[in-house]
Amino acid sequence: MFEYILSLLTITVILVLLAQSYNLSFGLTGLLNLGHIIFYGIGAYTAAILNTKFGVGFFENLILAILITGGFATFFGLLCLRLSGHYLAIATLGAAMITSVVANNWMSLTNGPLGIRGIENPIVFGYHFDSALSIFSLYFIIVSFCLFLLYKIFHSPYGRILRAIKDDELAAISVGKNVFSAKIWSLILSASFTGIAGVLYAHYRLFLDPSIFALPEIIFAILIVVVGGRGNFWGCILSVLFLQFISEIPRFFGFPDEIVGATRNILFASLLIAVMFWKPNGLFDKQLKKTLEKNKK
Amino acid sequence: MKKLLIFLVAPFLLWGCEENISNTDNNPETIKIGGIAPLSGDGATVGLMIQNVTNLAIETINNDGGINGKNIEILWEDGKCNPGDSSRSTQKLVNIDKVTAILGGVCSGETLGAAPITEKKKVILLSSASSSPEITSAGDFVFRTSPSDNSQGSILADYANKNFKKVGMITEQTDYSIGIASTFKEHFTGEIVEENYLPTESDFKTRITKLKNENIEGVLLIPQSPAKFEILIRQLQEQNWDKPILSNEIVTNTEVLKKFSDFFVKVSYVGAQFIVPDSENLNTFIDSYTTKFGEVPIYTNYVATTIDAVNMLAKALKEVESNDTEKIRDALYNIQNYEGFSGNISFDKNGDINITHSLFSFDGEKLVSLDEK
After folding, report:
1. Where would you tag: which of A25, A86, B142, B192 has the fewest CB atoms within 10 A of its CB?
2. Quick one: B135 and B283 in the same domain?
3. Which residue of B has its CA nearest to A288?
4. pTM of whole model > 0.90?
5. How many domains does chain A have?
6. Do B173 and A257 touch (CB under 8 A)?
7. Residues of A with CB below 8 A from B17's CB?
8. In this structure, are B155 and B242 located in the same domain?
9. Which of B20, B77, B91 sits opposite A4 (nearest CB)?
10. Is residue B294 part of a domain?
């Protein structure tokens, strides 16, 4: 039981980092980037390939993944960020499809749909993190550190520029802010943190295939941010916990086995629609806090 | 008010969870095993069939007295045909339900996603349908009762080496099809003109036209499903294709081939098939399956491999008489020349089964083995 909970918590901390970094570009800056999962996949593939083919260690992979996803985000940003709104959404979704096709076809690099097997658990300073508790502790520390940095970014003057861009891009330009550069940096930072999440994922799952780029993964990332409230730092973390909780619940409720998987998809999709309709600012926005306080009184 | 309600209900949900978890504590009267298959989504056609076959086979064993007086209890989880979901399901089966063995996955991705966890926890993973060559080296506790794709890729290549210098190849981009394609490429000495398509595509006209202009002597089709095979054949026929056609095992069901009898007789068809011997036991099983679930199982060969997987695991459990998975593993390796539904079978040192594919041609009515010719 304990190990099962630890395995869930490990995946949860990885998802928290994935979601929070997405929250930076999509939530805070308002870039409707549907290709965010690309960076997660690239991070994971970087770790998988370098580890299995060249024996590169966990920490080196983290650094290389930051550089590679950051570099890719620069290129991606220069191409796509000239667009906005729906156009940006379509272009980034297209980019996600392209990456998926590349991962499926570049057999010599990614081993295509057969996937990469034999990735190692993290080894740091000679210590092999292979028990559930040790991996969770390591990941918890890494993710907490990243979250601390992200929190600083969210609440820095730069973070306020990003918020201004989301609220009114024209106004931000009119007060002399370099909107394009701010947007590109938001994407690069967001991508680098996502790359870290990808590395953590690969070194935890130990097997990687192109399904990491699949549409359900993209929708799940969007769902986390929307449910948590776009640009809401704590809301996003609560949202991951909440979604992980409801996604595991059907397993324990004696539903027929063939319904459990579908139930989860239906739950998620209905939740996304419901939140968009009735709580466009997310389930965990400040309004909720106020209501709860009122109820207490 | 609504929110308050949610907070009020939440503890009950948790309590319900707890209730269920405590129910799954090890019951000494039963032997608990897990099952992983795609129970929802695209892979569910095969997944649900394998789930039914497994349940029925276990029911038969339990009715015959179970394992040394204990009944087998199987707990199913949806692997959704991908490594991520399968890995979550495996965590649950291994850590909460404390199963000694898992039957599954069905898709190769499921088996490969589960393998790192079962290896670490020394839990038997026995698949009856995953065919990726990668599974051969996935671990010491990983077994399978269906042949690896290596065998179809290599016999098709041997046939092609004898008969053609240049072939065309149309491959669907799934782990299954690409596995076969890469083995074929390894073994074929002639020239290959490759064409790939995504699982979502269904228009192959330009690819066929291109192949027609390439001066090839035959074409190898490697689709993922019988439905795609049919679409490919229909389009080849529409474009007056006149070269021999080779294919993977996807069309064991001759109904699909019969739809195009004249065409296949004209161009000649050779397929790598893995066909299980027609036995009375198998037919009886299929009859009881049909009565119970109201439909005929679609893949007879996987019905056979699945029953074999269940029976071989049961045999090992009977011999070992404990939950010691290392002993169960050794017992599985020691099973030699077992008279199963899919033939006379044994596991090799990698946990792979000793049955292979063989080549068949189609005479317009039925499949004819090329070995017998």
Report:
1. A86
2. yes
3. B3
4. no
5. 2
6. no
7. 249, 252-253
8. yes
9. B91
10. yes
